[in-house]
Amino acid sequence: MPPLPSIIAIDGPVASGKSSIGRRLAERLGYLFFDTGLMYRAVTYLALRDHVPLDDDEAVALYALRTHVDIRPPTVDDGRDCTVLAEGDEDITWELRSKEVEDNVSRVAAIPEVRRILTSRMRQVGLRGRIVMVGRDVGSVIVPEADFKIFLTASVEARARRRFEETQARGENRSYEEILANLRERDRIDSSRQTAPLRRAPDAYLLDTTVLDIAGVVATIERLIADYTK
Ligand code: DC
Hints:
- This protein is an alpha/beta fold.
- It has a single domain (7-228), classed as P-loop containing nucleotide triphosphate hydrolases (Rossmann fold, 3-Layer(aba) Sandwich).
- The protein is built from nine helices and eight strands.
- It has helices spanning 18-29, 37-49, 57-66, 99-109, 112-126, 138-142, 156-169, 176-192, 214-228, and strands at residues 7-11, 32-35, 69-72, 83-86, 90-91, 131-135, 148-153, 205-208.
- A five-stranded parallel sheet has the order 2-6-1-7-8. A three-stranded antiparallel sheet has the order 3-4-5, covered by helices on one side.
- β4 (83-86) and β5 (90-91) form a beta hairpin.
- The protein is globular and about 55 Å long.
- 2'-deoxycytidine-5'-monophosphate binds next to α2, α4 and α8.
C-alpha cells in the first residue's frame, strides 16, 4: 500500500469551500493546513494600510518583497482557519476578510512579480510535506509535484449564498446581490489574468460541491485518498 499523499493540493474559485474543507481534512490527517490566498490578502491589507498605490505594480512588488507574513495554526478559537501574523507579532487574521481587501485582492494577485515572490515562499512551505494547501494554482504552479490534487467547483450562486451566510454569522451587513456581483468580478479577474490563471491541473480530480455540504466533500475526498493508497 503506498503511503498517504504528502502534499495535498486543493484549488478552486472564490468561496468554493476550499478553506473549510482543507482545514477539516488537515485536522483529520494530522497535517498542516495552509491557505495560500491569505498571503495575497495579507499583502493587500498591509499595502492599503501603508498607502502603497495598488496601481503601481513595481511599488506593490517591492512592498511584498519587504513584508514578512506568517501563517500559523489558529491561536484563538474564534472560527478562524489559520492565524496570520504581520512582521512576527501583529495578528491581522480578521482584517483580511474586510470589504476593502476583498475589492482589491484580485488586482494585487494579478501582478506577475507579486505572484513570483509569494509563489516561491508558498512553495518552500509546501515542500516540507504533510500539508494540505488550498488556493487557485497550488496543483498547477506552486507545487505541481503534489501527489494528490483536487479541483473544487460550485455554481456562482451557491458560492455567493455560502459567503453571504458567513458574513451574516459574523454580523456584517452585506447584501447577497453585492456579494454575488463581487464573486462574478473576482472570478473574471482570477480566470483571465496572464500569470497563473485559475485553471484545473490536468491530473486534478474535479469535484462539484454545489449540492454537497462540507462533511460530504471531506468524505468524498477521503474516499479518493483511500483509493489512491490502495
Ligand atoms: O481564496 P481567497 O479568496 O482567499 O483568495 C484571495 C485572492 O488571492 C483571490 O483573488 C485569488 C488569489 N489567489 C491566487 O491568485 N492564488 C492562490 N494560490 C491563492 C489565492
